[in-house]
Design goal:
Radius of gyration: 18 Å
CATH class: Alpha Beta
CATH topology: Pseudouridine synthase
Number of domains: 1
Structural class: alpha+beta
Distance between the termini: 26 Å
Shape: globular
Number of strands: 12
Number of helices: 4
Length: 226
């Protein structure tokens, strides 16, 4: 990934925020297995500001799509408050194995992080944190379903664990899916985001990301027409 490639993935920019189409496979933070990560490129997104933009939330490394960055201290503070109050609209697209029995629904199932010899995982557990995901089927085909998910809470791996709980694990999910050796790529995308105005007289901030290349074939199979 180069600075120019990162700049080319900007979906929206004003004086307060940047919405970036984060590619799948790029971690947002440094880590033991993340030598290449988004924070290495944030200086390239200053665009005349004295400080680099900062993450207002996070996406898993293998999840692509809309990622919101605050460009200054005031916007970061306001965005943090909006996320806490549930005022940020988030829409995810996923392609899952199987199909739900209904066309729409809501999953309210607490999730809990457990750590063992093989690392950590997220499970459904009554002792965990409350987690709620609304979903609706957008298309079906060839044993797969294309689902729009709206998380009402922001827990780690929430959509992936809730889809598994629904009986429809996310395609390409090596942790919670049926094939731990899958090389299909995680079929989960932060497809669209909406943010209330941060400055007086401004409109809502809205951005939508195109589906990542590794999801396109499965989306076509489920009826997406591009």
């Amino acid at each position: 990934m180069t600075e120019d490639e990162i700049k080319a993935r900007i979906l929206f920019k004003d004086q307060d925020v940047i919405v970036l189409d984060k590619p799948a496979g790029l971690a947002v933070h440094a880590g033991p297995n993340s030598l290449d990560h988004l924070e290495l490129y944030l200086d390239a997104l200053k665009f005349g500001w004295s400080m680099a933009p900062r993450l207002a939330h996070r996406l898993d490394r293998d999840t692509s799509g809309c990622l919101l960055l605050g460009r200054h201290d005031k916007s970061i503070k306001r965005l943090g408050k909006m996320f806490m109050q549930g005022r940020v609209e988030k829409s995810y697209w996923t392609v899952v194995h199987g199909t739900p029995p209904e066309d729409t629904g809501e999953i309210s199932a607490p999730i809990h992080k457990v750590t063992g010899k093989g690392g950590w995982r997220i499970i459904i557990d009554a002792a965990g944190q409350p987690a709620v995901t609304r979903w609706r089927v957008l298309g079906r085909g060839d044993g797969l379903s294309w689902i729009e998910c709206t998380p009402l809470t922001g827990r780690t791996h929430q959509i992936r664990v809730h889809m598994k709980h629904l009986g429809c694990p996310v395609r390409g999910d090596v942790y919670y899916g049926p094939d731990p050796e899958s090389e299909l790529g995680l079929h989960l995308q932060s497809h669209a985001i909406g943010v209330p105005p941060l400055s007086t007289g401004k409109d809502w901030i809205r951005a939508e990301a195109p589906p990542p290349p590794h999801m396109v074939q499965a989306l076509f199979m489920c009826g997406w027409i591009g």
